[in-house]
Amino acid sequence: MKKLYLFISIMIFSMSIFAQEETKTTEFSIDGQFRTRLELQPSDGGRNVLVADETAGFTQLSQRSRITFNYKSGKLQSKFAIQDVRLFGSNKSVKSNNGSGNELAVHQAWLKYKLADKICVKLGRQELNYADARLLWNKNWLQEAASYDAVVFQGRGGLNWDVGFVLNSAEKNTVASQYRALGFFNISKKINDNITVNLTDLFEGYENGTTTALYGKNTIGINPVLKFGALKFNASFYYQNGKVATLGATQDYAGMMYTANISYKLGKITIGAGYDSYSGDDDATDDKNQVFTTPYAGAHKFFGNTDFHLKLFGLKKGINDINIKVNASLTPKTSINLALHMISLGYDDTYKDANNVDQTYKNVGNNIDFVLKHKFGKKMALLFGYSAMLASDEYKAKKLGAGTDAKFHQWAWVMVSFSPNFFKYSK
What contacts 28, CB < 8 A, 6 or more positions away? Predict the structure, then answer.
């Protein structure tokens, strides 16, 4: 009789599993994206380069075309996205982040499997976005965007966590900024309806650069987010340590960054103010490298749309930014964003004055951004942006030489984005 009960129990259990598998939902969809952007730049050097007054302007028209296949069934989920990024009139694509220059590229190709009730693993090429994007971001502003070949373990529940590993198993790099391996974890805890805390750690390993033989860098930090009605506050603090070997000499990393931002929503208008500080190094001869760098972050969204921060990082003097932002919804479909960034260096930099005498400066200038967005339904949007960099006289002298008149630095762009759904199936 016990064997009969056992047999019946096994049959009922097996039938219940079979019934669950038969009734599970299968979803499949095909989505597209067409994103065309016209840019009017100060010169062919790009939007972040100061040029002399007589320099001719430059017009660039680019497009990102992307098709994405999404699949979900039971414990399995996958995404496969192919994109083509190119300049109009060119048979060659815009050079991608990995330097391959392929016209057609796989942007995402991953498989996600549910290991347990609230734990899953995600394997393959994927976008990485965590916390405040100070360490990892998909860089979606770039037409080519950014994705990583990674395996990521994820846990969801009262405590959300991600642990990931990114590997470059191709030939040894010849560029020091290309990683050999990345490792990271992100922990996010919603303490209550008003407070969320994020903890992120990123390890970068490099090998065989042209000037850097081998080094590892670790960045760890915290990002609390507080919301009290119309008032929102968020802050970040990150610290970098590790070692770098450059032409036989070894330095220890000791960089840091911190930021604080506050905003208040008044009806359809949100007003915010913030301060960012990235450390620099005033003594390149000692055994400490105090320059805070984030090669996989989204600095474009923090230091102004002209991206002058890319040139400032090269000075290794650090960056300070006081910013004021205003976002307003004019209609349910139309919004505007205004931003003022007052940018300076953390340490004095030098330039030659008209008498060829060294002078010092910290003030870089003010970056002004304006963005207008109008939605045509849920799938299509038109965006217009205008930015100007009001550089200080000292920074102009640093970049162009004293006595050289600088061209008024302005950059404008128009972008059309259309994201249709071609096919959708659910059973």
Answer: 69, 70, 71, 72, 423, 424, 425, 426
Q: Hey, how many other C-beta atoms are within 10 angstroms of the C-beta on 97?
A: 15
Instruction: Identify the three-state secondary structure at position 146.
Output: coil
Q: Under DSSP, is residue 138 helix (H, G, I), strand (E, B) or coil? A: coil
Is the overall model pTM greater than 0.90, yes or no?
no
Nearest one of 245, 253, 165 to 217, comparing CA atoms: 253
| Cβ–Cβ < 8 Å for 368, 387 | yes
Q: b/e map of 276-291 (b: 16 or more CB within 10 Å)? A: bbbbbbeeeeeeebbb
* pLDDT tens per residue, range 116-174: 999 999 999 999 988 888 898 888 998 999 999 999 999 998 899 999 998 877 655 54
Q: How far is CA 195 from CA 86, 191, 227, 259, in A?
A: 43, 6, 6, 17
Chain segment 313-328, per-residue pLDDT in tens: 888 999 999 999 999 9
Q: How many residues does the chain have?
A: 427
Helices (H) and strands (E) in the chain, counts: 3, 20
CB atoms within 10 A of CB 268: 12
Cβ atoms < 10 Å from Cβ of 215: 21
Angle at Cα 8 formed by Cα 7 and Cα 10, nearest 5°? 65
Phi, psi dihedrals of residue 347, rounded to the nearest 5°: -125, 160
C-alpha–C-alpha distance, residues 68 and 83, integer Å:
9
**Pairing relationship of beta strands 249-266 and 288-289 according to DSSP bridges:** parallel
The owner of tokens 């931003």 is 339
